[in-house]
Amino acid sequence: MKVILEAGPFSVHRHHGKLYENISLVLYENDFVHLKGPSGTGKSTLLRQIVGLEKCPAGVKRILNGTAHPSKRLFNFRSKCVYLDADSPLIEGSISENLLFPYKFKINHHRKPVITPKKILEKLGLSPKLDTEVTNLSTGERERLCLARAILFDPQIILADEPFSGLDPESFEKAFSLLYEFSQKPEKAVLCVSHLELPQKSRTLFLKNGKLEELS
Ligand SMILES: Nc1ncnc2c1ncn2[C@@H]1O[C@H](COP(=O)(O)OP(=O)(O)OP(=O)(O)O)[C@@H](O)[C@H]1O
């Protein structure tokens, strides 16, 4: 199995004590890893530490496809390893403007959406048209738009934090299939935090009492 990402060791201390300590993780090509654990154990914090959105201890390594990314310069890393937050921000404007927003950054000028924005909305069963203002979308529609934007951008890794929480069963099925399909492409992997049962996964990791364990 080809290693896509090696990251760690991560530790977090909150005012009430240690949340977790010395957690490292490896993602392999085509991994779809389900990260579970009781509420408040630090699953979101761990995802945020991986992409450097949360303070990390000195000495943390992030090796993506054999290339080490130093903690002080993570812009390039974050364009290849995307953090998809449950409340990912949308910009003011239309669905189309939001889907194409990441390409406005100079570092992404060379990138092109993998499929058309129209096609990805169809796959997700999102009925609003591309010129619909995002302020007119429901919570579940906004959530699916954020997922569509991440997939369209074609990173190597998606770290998805509760990406299905606001979805009805039919929308969940479509959104899950799309994310799983993404993970099965060459040199891709997904780490997905979810309290839901997921229909398919390659591995399950459980975060509890400050430790990350792989469930068999
Ligand atoms: N920025 C912050 N500053 C201080 N404490 C925080 C911060 N963000 C989260 N916490 C605390 O850290 C702990 C872990 O939070 P986190 O959101 O990572 O847990 P989680 O396992 O993802 O929870 P859930 O399953 O409920 O989403 C919680 O006690 C939370 O209150």
From TrEMBL:
Q: Give the Gene Ontology MF terms in alphabetical order.
A: ATP binding; ATP hydrolysis activity
Q: Tell me where it resides.
A: Cell membrane
List the keywords (alphabetical): ATP-binding, Cell membrane, Membrane, Nucleotide-binding, Transport
Which InterPro entries does the protein's record reference? AAA+_ATPase, ABC_transporter-like_ATP-bd, MetN_ABC_transporter-like, P-loop_NTPase
- Renumbered to this chain, the signal peptide range is none
This entry carries the following GO cellular component terms, namely: plasma membrane
Which topology term describes how it sits in the membrane?
A: Peripheral membrane protein
Using the record's annotation, list all stretches that form the ABC transporter domain: 5-215
Any Pfam family:
ABC_tran
Coiled coil stretches, renumbered: none
Q: Where does the protein principally reside?
A: membrane
Q: Which family does it belong to?
A: Belongs to the ABC transporter superfamily.
Protein name as it appears in the record: ABC transporter domain-containing protein
